[in-house]
Amino acid sequence: MPLEFELCPGRKIGGTHPCFIIAEIGQNHQGDIEIAKKMIRMAKECGADCAKFQKSELEHKFNKRALERPYTSQHSWGKTYGEHKRHLEFSHEQYKQLQRYAEEVGIFFTASGMDEMAVEFLHELNVPFFKVGSGDTNNFPYLEKTAKKGRPMVVSSGMQSMETMRRVYQTVKEHNQKFCILQCTSAYPLEPEDVNLRVISEYQKEFPDIPIGYSGHESGITITLGAVALGAKVVERHVTLDKTWKGNDHAASLDPHELTELVRAIRTLERALGSGIKHMLPCEKPCHDKLGKSVVAKVSIPKGTTLTLDMLSVKVAEPKGVAPEDIFQLVGKKATSDIGEDESVTEDVVEGYGKKTRV
Fold first, then answer.
1. According to the model, what pLDDT value does residue 352 have?
2. Cα separation, 33 vs 279, whole angstroms
3. Average confidence (pLDDT) per 10 residues, the chain, 359 residues
4. Between the CA of residue 157 and those of 94, 195, 213, what are the distances in Å?
5. 109: CB partners within 8 A, 6+ apart
6. SS3 sequence, the chain?
7. What is the rounded CA–CA span in Å between residue 98 and residue 89?
8. Which of 195, 235, 221 is nearest to 23 (CA)?
9. What is the C-alpha radius of gyration for the chain, rounded to an integer number of angstroms?
10. Which CATH number fits domain 282-349: 3.90.1210.10, 2.30.30.240, 3.40.50.300, 3.90.180.10?
């Protein structure tokens, strides 16, 4: 299986394809569908590839006592956790509206299925890919059923160990070749010392045949850029219209200005990462023509003299002569004509010196 696949129609990830940027709206819409639409448009205008939500069928995600638990947080939308979650949960019909709106705007639309029934609904909705949130990454029956649907998958790895992630990889891989794993730490907001970006490199070693990405909850964009520099092919960041709004995720989210800057910076960074092939580039030629050094004669060298190292030096010279890295190849060869002191040693005045293209 190649290291790339089509995550969304016409959009591949992995390999040399651009990083896929997910704007995680989650439940930062405050339960208001008009705010949700504004956030979809904002994600598009900021340059993100995908607007993502979180879908739960609450009775399948929580047991009764969890839903009945008093919820007195300043971020609460109800007296119990169930009331709070119901306020933030969109209906099936509202999800269809949001999907249509995203299509009008021109941005990919999906959601994390937070339980098996939510995945069934998203499958019927025909989302381009499933997102597995960290809370379900070690839920192996869920993983297996989701993988069998055949849609591409993006799997976060917050709260998990490498041993668990190996099992996740094997479980999904058995049924679905099109998936990627995101390094993630489930803390909101996330402190830099807990990010552990080096896990991206470890995942690349452990799972060399799938793309690796990053899901972040930190402040700012610097750390996410570091993830892209390490090779993250998918990045996901929470977004908000206002960081002061009620809700746990707003403080750890990017506002529109930050999201715009993140997208711009990632695209600049991708250009800067280049091909990995080291050679002198055309843009370097002016500097090379002006300051590139050559081999020159330290002393006068009569025709027929066998060259020794102490006869030669390296300077910025006119005209260009033999490249400094080839100076040792001149030793032991004869001068085919007189070379004056401080003159360039060129290929045509050295016997048996094969002209070498300077690159």
1. 84
2. 53
3. 86 97 96 97 98 95 94 91 92 98 98 97 98 97 98 98 98 97 95 97 97 96 98 98 90 95 98 93 95 97 97 97 96 96 96 61
4. 29, 12, 10
5. 40, 50, 51, 52, 98, 99, 102, 103, 127, 128
6. CCCEEEEECCEEEECCCCCEEEEEEECCCCCCHHHHHHHHHHHHHHCCCEEEEEECCHHHHCCHHHHHCECCCCCCCCCEHHHHHHHHCCCHHHHHHHHHHHHHHCCEEEEEECCHHHHHHHHHHCCCCEEECHHHCCCHHHHHHHHHCCCCEEEECCCCCHHHHHHHHHHHHHHCCCEEEEEECCCCCECHHHCCCHHHHHHHHHCCCCCEEEEECECCCHHHHHHHHCCCCEEEEEECCCCCCCCCCHHHCECHHHHHHHHHHHHHHHHHHCCCCCCCCHHHHHHHHHHCEEEEECCCECCCCECCHHHEEEEECCCCCCCHHHHHHHCCCEECCCECCCCECCHHHECCCCCCCCC
7. 13
8. 235
9. 30
10. 3.90.1210.10
Of 172, 181, 171, the closest CA to residue 207 belongs to: 181
Domain ranges of the chain: 13-273, 282-349
pLDDT at 2: 52
pLDDT value at residue 248:
82
What CA–CA distance (Å, rounded) separates 276 from 267?
Answer: 17
Judging by DSSP bridges, how do beta strands 293-297 and 234-238 pair with one another?
unpaired
Q: Which residues contact 166 (CB under 8 A, 6 or more apart)?
A: 206
pLDDT of residue 355: 54
pLDDT of residue 251: 86
Contact call for residues 306 and 333 (beta carbons, < 8 A): yes
For residue 35, CA distances in Å to 38, 41, 42, 108, 159 come to: 5, 10, 10, 18, 31
For residue 307, give the nearest of 352, 264, 242, 277 by alpha carbon. Answer: 352
Query: Look-up: residue for tokens 């005045």?
Result: 349
Whether CATH 3.40.47.10 fits 13-273: no
Q: What is the pTM of this model?
A: 0.91
Task: Find tokens 């990053």 and name the residue.
Answer: 214
